[in-house]
Amino acid sequence: MLAAWCCGSLTTLVAQKRVQRSTVFEWAGLESKTTATGSRRDVMRAPTMTLDELEIHITTLNAGQVSHPPHQHPQEELLIVKDGIVETLQNGKASRLGPGSIIFHSSNDLHNIRNAGTTPATYHVIQWTVPGK
Q1: 71: closest CA among 34, 117, 107, 122?
Q2: CATH number of the domain residue 57 falls in
């Protein structure tokens, strides 16, 4: 009886996603993948000790490009502008921002982002899913 319980528990544990522990991500080690609008570097997408999922990626938009049509989702997210000039649309209001600026998209707010400059614009995206959502 104990062996059956033990083996079933091991199977369950193996099937669960690994919880992301403390780590570092070096820029040079992040593979850049070309997209229709620029490029993307995937950093991580995994559960953490307190979140069901933490997803981080870095997007570079070519001049004049839009990330995607305005959309909404239940997860909140932060965008941190690394390079270039971007314009974010949040619930119909546009804001133009440069390097070092931070954008917060609240849950279910209609939003998008576009490169409003003449050079590539790069920004970090951090999105999280809380337990039970």
Answers
A1: 107
A2: 2.60.120.10
Query: Containing H/E element for 10?
Result: helix 2-15
At 125, list the tokens. 């995206």
Query: What's this model's pTM, rounded to 2 decimal places?
Result: 0.85
The pLDDT tens digits of the residues spanning 49-67 come to: 999 999 999 999 999 999 9
For 23, the token pair is 């780590």
SS3 content of the chain, % helix, strand, coil (to 5): 15, 45, 45
The residues near 52 (Cβ < 8 Å, ≥ 6 apart) are: 129, 130, 131, 132, 133
Domain that holds residue 61: 23-129
Instruction: Give residue 53's identity as a one-letter amino acid code.
Output: E
Split into its structural domains, the chain has a count of 1
